[in-house]
Structure prediction request, 427 residues.
Amino acid sequence: MTLTAGDQPPLPAPGPAGQKVSNTYISLIVAAQFGVFVAFITPLAISLAIRVGELAPGREEYLGYITGSGALAVMVTAPFLGVLSDRTRTRLGRRRPWMIGGTVLGLISLVVMALAPSVLVLGFGWILAQLGWGQVLGNLLNSTADRLPEEQRGKVAGLGGFAQQIGPVFGVVLAGGLAGQNLLLFLVPGLIGAVLVAIFVIVVGERDSRGLELGDRLTLKTLGAKFLYDPRVHPDYSWNWLGRFLFYFGLALNTTFTAFFFAARLGVTVEEVAGLIAALGGAGVLATAAGAIGGGFLSDRLHRRRPFVLASGVVFGLGAVLMAVAPSTPLLFAGSLICSLGIGGFAAVDQALLLDVLPERDTDAGRFLAITGFATSIPQAAGPFVAPIFLAIGTGDGEKNYTLLYVVAAVCTVLGGLVVLRIKSVK
Prediction:
């Protein structure tokens, strides 16, 4: 039922007293997230590489320039768009207009990339895709901040983590059957995403937001200030941000040079380890999904977040150390799977913990969720530049110190788990 502006009560803050959402809501939001990852990650995983190979043969570095430009565009615009989502006042509510607009822009971007006559246009299309599908995903997360009570946040975050792992795999398998048909290669995954998002938007209602107070007047100055906040006012949110930053920095150190690390340890070329890494990636998806679902559901059942976040950081650290010192291939693979288990657990439970400590949820949820995005995007950008420093320490004759790199990665993830123990408002 849609309320008129005059009948509109204030949006309730999700929390211990919040009303549980239905299984229908949970199923549809997880399905919508799955659709976004199919539409959005498939180009990143395979379709973009195919198009770069067609438009600029032998210039693989262009793929890095394109993906880096898209990530930079999102990092710069996300807080602004999050603020605008919070302040949207329409009959459809705050979040649904952005999901609709993002889906339309996302589909347009896929057509642009499929038909791009040059690498420059291809890069422009990818930036549009990042902005479009990124807004859909961001406002799905905003919806969970608006609606989920504490006792369901871990469950939904775990199932969302599962969707995040399975979506790209489904998309890559789908794309494999469409190779050589550029328009279908991009559009079919996009249409799957659009349909699942549309079902969520149509079935899951949202309150008319036209009667909500806007708060301070938005100007260029106040909009720029939305990038910042006072950590002393929101200490628990700040500890969560720092813990996430440390964990994902360790993850970036661990994953950036995976192919080169495996080649060095196994004594083969990078090309020869591609098949092994692909097989390990498939098993890693299952391990990550197990960590996400198991950690999310248990954290809800036991009403504990911090121990699970700490355990996930320690598990990842143990896996990274095992990889660093592994004397055999089976132990190397075991370490990688242990890391995947830790990644899944951290991603799910830390997301639930974030919703528990999110400041100003009623008015600024989109803004603070966008600021949290920096805790992930900065490590992803900085990690590849910092890693070579550790690789060069104490080595000679062209050898790389992968042992030190992976130990440092382990230290970062454990510190990320320890930092959240400083949070006081959540167990």
Remarks:
- The chain is about 75% helix and 0% strand.
- Residues 1-17 have pLDDT under 50 and may be disordered.
